[in-house]
Amino acid sequence: MPLVNTKEMFKKAYAEGYAIGAFNVNNMEIVQGITEACQELKAPVILQVSAGARKYANHTYLRKLVEAAVIECPDIPIALHLDHGASFELCKDCIDGGFTSVMFDGSSKPYEENVEEARKVAEYAHKYGVTVEAELGKLAGIEDDVNVDAENAQFTDPGEVQDFVTRTGVDSLAIAIGTSHGAYKFKPGQKPKLRLDILQEVSERLPGFPIVLHGASSVPQQFVQEVNQYGGQMPDAIGIPEEMLREAAKMAVCKINIDSDLRLAMTASVRKYLAENPSHFDPRQYLAPARTAIKDMVAHKIQTVLGCAGKA
Ligand code: G3H
Ligand code: 13P
Ligand code: ZN
């Protein structure tokens, strides 16, 4: 099946109480690891590309890699999504360049500017059958060199969501309920907490409307230990507990964004391989196990967090 937008994926996910994994892709091994797991488990998937990924790997290379995955994985719906599009121009570029879904991220702009630009993106995107995600509220963490510290992060105000969605016409909404970007989501000793009460209130104000969770990596401790054991330095890396994400996926959350866990799986595997095989220098030797580590991690996520196995 050809690349799809997120409309039908989210409709089904909402109705059946599961979420679609949205995984960031930056190179071939990442695309392959993710989609092999999804194909085997018959799980729909969103492959997302950030502005940084486009800068690193080039739009066309990434799009062609994803198109190759569509051919190799004929049984599953795959959407190609722009992650954190900071402007109308960037969103337009991706819509014109074959993406089937875009995020316009105006979360750091004043409310009215966010509304106006998201509306413009939705109007343009919908002409081409492309779905649009927007964001209200501010997550802590780092994305594309923008660093929002915990003090400047803000939970989404449920009082704004109806006005925002009605005026912009977007198809899904990312909200801030305590997740954050990166591998350091909570301080050691701090009890991880998600404001599922805010999610509940948002979904009461937007019945049937798909909600998105960014910053949703769980930072599996076996990867952190492996990184640290083989020469890395990631003390106190902590993520969102899997059971909290599962809870959110049973509610209105239809898309769960994961990037840091991919980075960790890959880095832990490469560090271990090179430490144990110091004479090897063929990249295929260390990238093959890294790709398998991604595949296993994604399979685990589909089964325990997302609940989307067999939903293709
Ligand atoms: O939310 C941000 C994603 O992890 C993408 O990160 O901008 O470094 O590619 P990046
Ligand atoms: P993580 O850093 O938790 O993986 O979040 C990724 C993300 O939100 C991409 O948009
Ligand atoms: Zn994000």
Task: Offer a concise description of the structure.
This protein is an alpha/beta fold and 312 residues long. It has helices spanning 7-16, 28-41, 51-57, 59-72, 88-96, 111-127, 158-168, 196-205, 221-229, 242-250, 260-276, 283-306; strands at 20-24, 45-50, 78-85, 101-104, 131-136, 141-143, 146-148, 172-175, 211-213, 253-258. Helix 2 (28-41) runs parallel beside helix 4.
Give structural attributes.
312 residues, alpha/beta, TIM Barrel, eight-stranded parallel beta barrel, two-stranded antiparallel ribbon, 12 helices, 48% helix, globular, binds glyceraldehyde-3-phosphate, binds 1,3-dihydroxyacetonephosphate, binds zinc ion
Q: What can you see in these coordinates?
A:
The chain has 312 residues and is of the alpha/beta class. The protein has a single domain, classed as Aldolase class I (TIM Barrel, Alpha-Beta Barrel). Helix content is 48%, strand content 15%. The strands form 2 sheets. It has an 8-stranded parallel barrel, surrounded by 10 helices. A two-stranded antiparallel ribbon has the order 6-7. α2 links the parallel β1 and β2 (45-50). It binds glyceraldehyde-3-phosphate (G3H), 1,3-dihydroxyacetonephosphate and zinc ion. Glyceraldehyde-3-phosphate binds at residues 24, 50, 52-53, 83-84, 143-144, 181, 259.
Task: Report the CATH superfamily.
Answer: Aldolase class I
Helices and strands, in N-to-C order? HEHEHHEHEHEEEHEHEHHEHH
State the helicity in percent bands.
Answer: 40-55%
- Structurally, the number of domains stands at 1
Low-pLDDT stretches: none
Radius of gyration: 18 Å
Strand order of the largest sheet: 1-2-3-4-5-8-9-10
